[in-house]
Amino acid sequence: MTTAVGADTARKPATMAQALGRALRDAMAADPSVHVLGEDVGTLGGVFRITDGLAEEFGEDRCTDTPLAEAGILGTAVGMAMYGLRPVVEMQFDAFAYPSFEQLISHVSRMRNRTRGAMPMPITVRVPYGGGIGGVEHHSDSSEIYYMATPGLHVVAPATVADAYGLLRAAIASDDPVIFLEPKRLYWSKADWSADAPEQVPPIGRAVVRRPGSGGRRAATLISYGPSVPVCLEAAEAARSEGWDLEVVDLRSLVPFDDETVCASVRRTGRAVVVHEAAGFGGPGGEIAARVTERCFHHLEAPVLRVAGFDIPYPPPMLERHHLPGVDRVLDAVARLQWEAEWTEGSAV
Questions:
Q1: Which of 1, 2, 58, 164 lies most in the core, judged by the most C-beta atoms within 10 Å?
Q2: Percentage of residues in the chain with pLDDT exceeding 70?
Q3: 100-118, pLDDT tens digit by residue?
Q4: Nearest-5° angle of CA 162, CA 163, CA 164?
Q5: Where is the signal peptide, in residue numbers (predicted)?
Q6: Which residues are catalytically annotated?
Q7: Confidence of residue 349 (pLDDT cuts 50, 70, 90)
């Protein structure tokens, strides 16, 4: 984004919610074909106030309140995209998106391939997802595996303020449909950031190492994304007292998947743990573990382990702290990575 002469480019504390709102505003200002639509995105500014002020600034024809009908919302977006617009759909909560899956799977994900590239689908579907806010079921799901398993979709999940802005701008500019997973419990996380001169971030499809490790004999890689990245960073700091050196990789993009960055880290450390809120059985961790095992088998000192949500419907608010992966569960998994002393002592058992 070009910064006006004299604009205040100082970095100031900003929340992820503010960065997302600014990304929408800047995209709409830069391109009149960008339209925002969803339940309560106009007058209310969205349940989480991400779209606050957009209807006032750009008009209700570009920031449009819709009926409570997710299939209709996404179906409308398909028609808009076919006529050259760039719709940005907000699904109010993660599990509210389920009624729209027929449109998503039958049309959004397939249209560009169906037309041999003649008709792109530049649709961004914003999905506030995940737990940690005391929400009940249908308000706290981690649905990423459904999107990952649908060819034709890009799937991204920011974990930082800078990525929230940069990845959303990239998603809106993409000619492929992007499922943009926004971790609700990170909406109010803060970082120093300049709204008038936002930093450049890696593109969709690139992971980053958030915490480098030394790659020594007591090293391991924590692989995560979205709301579990801060958990992994906290666990990595706590692991120092146990003598473990944990490198943390933030995937950022689930589809396309950055095998290069992930596998380079695992080859350095020789061990890996995948951490996410979604259920373990059939979840993203299984695919990630398989990819790492196929590409890093001769570098692995132990099986790739997973720390995930339990294989249950999302629990009531008072129980979610037991369901969500936390620092203790991550460290417990690290302890099971067949460290040399433990393996030697127990090998005869």
A1: 164
A2: 95
A3: 999 999 999 999 999 999 9
A4: 90
A5: none
A6: 139
A7: very low
